[in-house]
Amino acid sequence: MSKFQSAESYSNDKYKLLPIRFSEAYDNKYIVTNMVGEYEILDFDIINRLVNNDVIHDKNLLGRLYSKHFIYDGTDHTALKLLGLKYRSKISRLKEFTSLHMVVVSLRCDYTCSYCQVSRQGLKADFDKYDMSIKTADKVIDLIFSSPSKGIKVEFQGGESLLNFKIIKYITEICHLRGIQENRNVQFVIATNLSMLDDEIINFIKKYNIYVSTSLDGPRSLHDRNRPKPENDGYDLTIKGIKNIQENVSLSQVTALMTTTGRSLDYGIEIVDEYIKNDLSAIFLRPLSPYGFAITKKQINQYDTDRWLEFFKNTLDYIININKNGYNLMEQYSSLILTKILSPKDLGYVDLQSPSGAMIGGIIYDYDGSVYASDEARMQAAMGNFKFKLGHVDENSYEEMIGGEFILDAIDKSMSVSVPSCTSCAFLPYCGSDPVYHFATQNNVVGNKQISGYCKKNMGVFKHLINLLENSDEETKRILQSWVRY
Amino acid sequence: MQKIITVNPDVVRSIFIDANLYPLEIIESSTIPLSPFGSFKISLSNQKFKIEIKLATDTDITMEDLCHSLENNIIHESLRLKIAEKTELERNLILSYTFSNTKLMG
């Protein structure tokens, strides 16, 4: 008996269909995906033939459909087992539960950014009132270690986090020790504008291998306009801080993020050039925040989504050309999505998770001990909506917080596979759901996806990346493939 | 708050679909993606679905575009239902392979 089945057994109409979804991708071409996001671009006629078990004349296509587990021979379960294994890899983060713990150590800030959504307080505000206390920090640490996750990331945020370096130091030292005692891998990130960076902090970053995430919105004029600082030295201090970490810790220890304001939309090239000038290896083309005033002007938000998509596509083109010219610069949003499209991995980016990344992916402890399901939920609370508040460190246990009726209901409803429109969308394996966003914009945790800015933005990005993967030159494809993180 | 579309009551078109060919769930799911562009009233008589369509006032698309999209959606949704029915066994088996021997099972 031969080890292999005959070629005829794989041919034509002897196949059986496996679960697939299809959606229009571009130019009357359809994207077909399986349960784990492997994809093929097909004409509608081929999809129709597949579903009706008609003969597929293109032998190469037939081979690809078998190898990508869109069809199988109807008897051997190997394809089903492999799909099960890949699906398990995709959702493996669920058994880890909350691994990202964001700690707001101070609400005070030395900047006066107009896009800040967290009701920051001025530098001279009462630090007893707006900085996290040691008593609260102790309770936060206990809650962090109540999470079952073996890998824990503690991210310090603000206001300006380094204004309360004392508490960052305290929490880091204790979490580091508890991580060793409890055999957990604990990583630390400080989100900071870098204006308070000094030698003591540099040494501390080095000692605990802390990653630093800062904001760089573009060249001086744009950065200082987006992120005004009364002393007018915001850009200078940010660049000085980035250089300080690159030279005294390592190049990869500091990353920068940009927020795309309305005035940023015309400066994609200049923003990218600023990142290259400062030896940064990644840029995150973050969309406009849907919180604050944008919510009350929903139609404008839709318009902004179109403008942001145009900005994203043009800037991505420029980044790809920069890579072709020899400078390795990765666009991080594309990287997160390409990893979902081209690998069985999911990097766990909170905004692109189903069930929702809020609470499951990350949890945030505010300076005053309030606990929220996500950073956006904290922003919502600052605007008077406390629906996504999980509890308070002084009043609630870990179990009470993660078992809250409203949040469990929201997470239950955030399963995209059971959401109208999402359930049949071929992009579902790459997408997620964002109950906080949809509650903010539509007063409904599920949201009508036909009018959702979240859906419009992500569909636009997915289609653009798929189009590039399919229809661009080989070098562009190679660059995009190199952004997949395994 | 969710934006409520306004429709022009004078611009109405009805299309008829054979109820022996397509179930109600297909008709309903075909209209959902088009809800920002108009309103759809579905009724059944003499084994035919009557879909009464009113066009939204603030849309760039025409009534012809809307009807064309609806008819295409019905074909797409019908195919999706076939996929769901034909692959139900495989889907359940894949999920059982996914969750067996993992802590994800209760």
TrEMBL record, chain A:
Keywords of this entry? Iron, Iron-sulfur, Metal-binding, S-adenosyl-L-methionine
Q: Gene3D superfamilies of this UniProt entry? A: Aldolase class I
Record has Ion transport as a keyword: no
Looking up Pfam families in the UniProt record yields: Radical_SAM (PF04055)
Q: Which cofactor does it need?
A: [4Fe-4S] cluster
Q: SMART domains in the record, alphabetically?
A: Elp3
User: Domain Radical SAM core, which positions?
Assistant: 95-325
Q: What stretches pass through the bilayer?
A: none
PROSITE patterns, per the entry: RADICAL_SAM
**Family statement:** Belongs to the radical SAM superfamily. Anaerobic sulfatase-maturating enzyme family.
This one is known as: His-Xaa-Ser system radical SAM maturase HxsB
Source species of the chain: Psychromonas aquatilis
From TrEMBL, chain B:
Q: What is this protein called?
A: His-Xaa-Ser system protein HxsD
Report the source organism.
Psychromonas aquatilis
State the taxonomy lineage: Bacteria, Pseudomonadati, Pseudomonadota, Gammaproteobacteria, Alteromonadales
